[in-house]
Structure to design on (190 residues):
């Protein structure tokens, strides 16, 4: 990669990083393109060279979040508890190694509740609902006696909301120690 290409990629990443920070701290609706350009130390003209609008930046950040979710939502019906252990381990490892990962969790939660989100983002968010997708897996674990009895949707909600809450806490306080993944999996373990 040439020096110019490296510089372009660095600027693009900086725009995404400062946008992510602004979107979760001020909200998507309250953030202006000029806020992003200013925080990224660039002119509006240079910003437009990378993204046509703040909506396009938002869409790309949501796509990053969706790609992360889809990356670990592979199901092992034979061993559902192994899936939840791997999911918690992968998420917590990512949260430790990539500081922006926790912010992506916050952004995704906000985006799901933002009635004024761009239509393209609303359509993307319909693709993945970890709570709903995990219900069948919890039922399989209940049948094979590895997952505790109880309402499968409530158990799925307890697991994923715990993961979400930890990610949100780490986004606000990166120095907080990350819990052990097994502590969260114990919510489900029989």
């Amino acid at each position: 990669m040439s020096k110019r290409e490296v510089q372009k990629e660095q600027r693009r990443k900086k725009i995404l990083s400062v946008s992510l920070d602004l979107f979760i701290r001020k909200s998507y609706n309250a953030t202006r393109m000029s806020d992003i350009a200013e925080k990224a130390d660039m002119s509006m003209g240079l910003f437009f060279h990378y993204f046509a609008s703040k909506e396009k930046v938002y869409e790309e950040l949501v796509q990053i979040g969706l790609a992360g979710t889809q990356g670990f939502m592979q199901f092992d019906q034979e061993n559902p508890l192994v899936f939840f252990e791997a999911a918690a381990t992968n998420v917590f490892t990512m949260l430790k190694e990539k500081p922006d990962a926790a912010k992506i969790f916050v952004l995704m939660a906000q985006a799901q509740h933002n009635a004024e989100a761009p239509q393209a983002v609303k359509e993307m968010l319909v693709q993945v609902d970890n709570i709903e997708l995990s219900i069948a897996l919890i039922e399989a674990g209940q049948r094979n006696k590895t997952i505790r009895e109880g309402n499968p949707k409530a158990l799925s909600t307890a697991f994923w909301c715990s993961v979400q809450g930890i990610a949100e806490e780490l986004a606000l306080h990166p120095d907080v120690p990350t819990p052990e993944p097994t502590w969260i999996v114990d919510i489900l373990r029989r």
